[in-house]
């Protein structure tokens, strides 16, 4: 037996620890965002439309929220749902971009406005560098 895996550790045990770790990560991130926004747990639960105990369990890493609940929490915190989705593992992390980061962190525009601006930005990038587009226009028309 190796020292790395305790006796009786199954793949299920390992998977449970990974999920627990992800729940802890998203929970602590939500809590830090809530505290930075100076919003109480009760206020956020009302804004997000989830119960106070459920939100508390998410923040403590006891529960991993669904994508829908994360979206509601993002709205309540006025942060990008995409950031929460990536943090929770629902979306894969994209290459760093100062423009993308600035748009996603801007609390003065809505989620819809952020998405539209990101789509425009990405279309300009693809237009200027066709290698960024997985299927160039010629292949799409064929």
Automatic annotation (TrEMBL):
SMART domains to which the protein is assigned, alphabetical: HTH_XRE (SM00530)
Residues in coiled coil: none
Domain HTH cro/C1-type: 30-84
Signal peptide annotation: none
The UniProt record lists the keyword Protein transport: no
Keyword DNA-binding: yes
Cross-referenced SUPFAM superfamilies: lambda repressor-like DNA-binding domains
Keywords, comma-separated and alphabetical: DNA-binding
CDD domains named in the record: HTH_XRE
Origin superkingdom: Bacteria
PROSITE patterns cross-referenced by the UniProt entry: HTH_CROC1 (PS50943)
Pfam families tied to this protein: HTH_3
Name this protein carries in UniProt: Helix-turn-helix domain-containing protein
Species of provenance: Rhodococcus daqingensis
């Amino acid at each position: 037996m190796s020292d790395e895996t305790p006796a009786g550790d199954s793949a299920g045990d390992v998977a449970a620890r990974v999920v627990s770790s992800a729940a802890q990560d998203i929970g602590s991130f939500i809590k830090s965002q809530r505290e930075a926004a100076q919003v109480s747990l009760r206020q956020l639960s009302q804004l997000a439309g989830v119960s106070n105990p459920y939100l508390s369990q998410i923040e403590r890493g006891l529960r991993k929220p669904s994508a829908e609940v994360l979206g509601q929490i993002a709205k309540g915190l006025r942060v990008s749902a995409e950031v929460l989705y990536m943090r929770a593992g629902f979306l894969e992390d994209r290459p760093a971009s100062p423009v993308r980061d600035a748009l996603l962190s801007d609390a003065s525009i809505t989620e819809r406005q952020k998405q539209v601006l990101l789509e425009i930005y990405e279309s300009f990038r693809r237009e200027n560098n066709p290698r960024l587009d997985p299927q160039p226009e010629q292949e799409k028309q064929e």
